[in-house]
Amino acid sequence: MKVYPFFIPHAGCPYRCRFCQQQWVSGHSVAPSPAQVEKELPLLLPELGDGEVAFYGGSFTLLEPALQRDYLQRVKPFIERGQVAGIRISTRPDALDEEQLTLLQQGGVTTVELGCQSFSAEVLAAAGRGHGPLSAGCAVKRLRSQSLQVGLQLMPGLPGAAPVEALLSLRQALDLEPDFLRIYPTVVLRGTVLEDDFQQGCYRPLALDDAVELCAEMLWHCREVGVPVIRLGLQATAALVPDQALVAGPYHPAFGALVKSHLWRRALTTVLAVQPGCEVRVHPSDLSDVLGQRRDNWRYFEERGCCLTLRCDKGMARDHFEIEGRNYALQAAAAFPPISTLL
Ligand code: SF4
Fold first, then answer.
1. Ligand 1: does its nearest atom lie under 6 Å from the Cβ of 131?
2. Which of 242, 237, 221, 329 shows the shortest CA–CA distance to 283?
3. DSSP characters for 145-180?
């Protein structure tokens, strides 16, 4: 589904999470006024479309109710004309009481993204979130009762969080049966409290390779239960570079591609260990993920004395590969142990 985003950085939010710097993340420093949104929409939207206009980067339901209504009202005529199907907002899990929900529903909101980040009480407290792990479950229940679509956001690598915490939090997020997830490994942004922690040596972010490996495992579990992950890693913006917003952490402009390539590497490694071969066939659309960034996967196999020839075959199913005439599914070949074994 196409999303037409407007960024309202930090708007409405009375908190300051340790890692938060919405201006850097969104690439926008101020929220557009409702009138600006109305003016820009005709330039963005098709004549007919099933997308959603989104308000990201703040806690929409904590804006003044009159301002919320104004934003939503400006989009309404475009919904009525069929140019867009609905409205998506992001907010905190503890900012969805009955009144706030009614306002969203009356205003045409169809999807709500909740910044859960973690389901560990200790990690949430250390991040200064101001809500506990139970808020997400209550919010999802309320949203479901109004037939709203629900997306959950998770942040592996927060202070005090071991990799196993990310997997356990993922398990709890998936138990809530969200419509989709976003996974953003924690990075240290300039101007955040986390930057001070990092400079004082009190916080060490995940290394890029570790974050890729962890997120590959998370992605695999999501695919296993059919929950789409619509974003892996922060969206690249001009400011997300070391001399500006980025202080440290596992940021990469193509983080999602690194994660998918890691799954391919894992799957091929597993199969080649028991079924040696020299030719791998894949669908052409999978080629770049199979090869990896700058052919990293291929180099990885070459360095281990495994010289593979890659063949593109439009007859292959996506996310499948063939070695020596035998067909394998990426998901099955890259299997991870169940999260329950970590408990
Ligand atoms: S709740 Fe969201 S907008 Fe508010 S400080 Fe935390 S991350 Fe930033």
1. no
2. 329
3. HTT-EEEEEE-TT-TT--HHHHHHHHHHHHHT--SE
The CA 46 to ligand 1 mean position distance, Å, reads: 32
Q: Is the CB of 10 under 6 A from ligand 1?
A: yes
Q: Between the CA atoms of 185, 186, 191 and 195, what dihedral angle is there, to the nearest 10 degrees?
A: -140
Q: How many CB atoms lie within 10 A of CB 71?
A: 23
Backbone angles phi, psi at 119, to 5 degrees: -115, 15
Nearest ligand 1 atom, CA 16? 5
Range of the domain at 171: 3-253
**Are 54 and 162 members of one domain?**
yes
Q: What distance in angstroms lies between residue 224's CA and the mean position of ligand 1's atoms?
A: 30
- Tell me, using a 6 A CB cutoff, whether residue 17 lines ligand 1: yes
Q: How many domains, in total, are found in the chain?
A: 2
Instruction: Determine the longest span between alpha carbons in the chain, in angstroms.
Output: 65
Residues 215 and 273 in one domain: no
Residues 333 and 222 both lie in one domain: no
The residue out of 229, 253, 277 marking a domain boundary is 253
Final residue belonging to a domain, choices 253, 284, 301: 253
Q: Is the pTM of this model over 0.90?
A: yes
Q: Is the CB of 186 under 6 A from ligand 1?
A: no
- List the chain pLDDT tens, one digit each, 343 residues: 899 999 999 899 989 999 998 887 777 788 999 999 999 999 999 999 999 999 999 999 999 999 999 999 999 999 999 999 999 999 999 999 999 999 999 999 999 999 999 999 999 999 999 999 999 999 999 999 999 999 999 999 999 999 999 999 999 999 999 999 999 999 999 999 999 999 999 999 999 999 999 999 999 999 999 999 999 999 998 888 888 899 999 999 999 999 999 999 999 999 998 887 789 999 999 999 999 999 999 899 989 888 888 999 999 999 999 998 899 999 999 999 999 887 7
Judgement on whether residues 168 and 313 belong to the same structural domain of the protein: no
Atom of ligand 1 at shortest distance to CA of 59? 3
**Which tokens go with 55?**
């308000």
